[in-house]
Amino acid sequence: CARLHERAARSQEAVRASRREAGECRRQLQARLVEMESLRGAHQSLERQLQELEERHNAEAAGLQDTIGQLEDNLRNTKNEMARHLREYQDLLNVKMALDIEIAAYRKLLEGEETLFNMGSGGLPSLNSLPSPTYSFQPRSFSSST
């Protein structure tokens, strides 16, 4: 009876130890579950932040692509405008050179006539005392249709 009583006491002690160990395991399990839920919440929060960052990045990239497109259009328009101005400048330069050639030809003609006039009027001293004529050029306006 004493041995049974002793065994029962040891068994009760073993049961208590097992219960303490089971309680400790439950507390650890509960702590791990709380930690796991906390980590799940942090994971979900990070996933949302990542998604928001991706959306923001995509929107910013789309905005930058639009800006690049606009800048390329502006550059193309500016190049076309510069080419048009260059053509107009070349046209005006060609007109100027043609007018310079024409003016030079008229000047030679007038100088030749003046020389003939001076040679032919040797007997008229009053005409020789006149100041030599000056010629002024009145530019005409030209329009380019380019």
Automatic annotation (TrEMBL):
GO terms for biological process: intermediate filament organization. Residues 124-133 have a biased composition (Low complexity). Residues 36-95 form a coiled coil. Keywords: Coiled coil, Intermediate filament. Transmembrane segments: none annotated. One of its GO terms (cellular component) is postsynaptic intermediate filament cytoskeleton. GO terms for molecular function: structural constituent of postsynaptic intermediate filament cytoskeleton. PROSITE patterns: IF_ROD_1 (PS00226), IF_ROD_2 (PS51842). It holds the Pfam family Filament. Residues 134-146 have a biased composition (Polar residues). Residues 124-146 are annotated as: Disordered. Residues 1-117 form the IF rod domain. Belongs to the intermediate filament family. This is AINX protein. It comes from Loxia leucoptera. The gene is Ina_1.
